[in-house]
Amino acid sequence: MAKLTVQNLSNLEVRVTEGQTLLKALQATGTDWMHACGGKGRCTSCRVIVLQGMEHFGPLSAAETRYREKGRLKDNERLTCQCTLTGGEVTGKVPEQTKLPHLNYSG
Length: 107
Fold this sequence. Notes:
This protein is α+β, with helices and mostly antiparallel strands. The chain has helices spanning 22-28, 62-69; strands spanning 2-6, 12-16, 47-52, 77-79, 89-93. Strands 2-1-5-3-4 form a five-stranded mixed sheet, covered by helices on one side. Keywords: 2Fe-2S, Iron, Iron-sulfur, Metal-binding.
């Protein structure tokens, strides 16, 4: 089982099972995470900035590839509604643009 640590959410630790998207894993913990299109890969509001562990991600989805080609998804970002982990530990953070107003972010 893989682990995601969200640095600017008080180092929230989320267990991610094989085949589970990061968004589903976050939702399973009761954590609110921006996803304007409902997790369909039609926007970039659910993205996470990957600080460590990019090698533990599965391949880019078609939606992620499309947004990368358009310059809307940086090399150190993934869409939580699209990506899965292959194992290991990953550290990420919520981008400034997609922080939710009712949550307290650190750092």
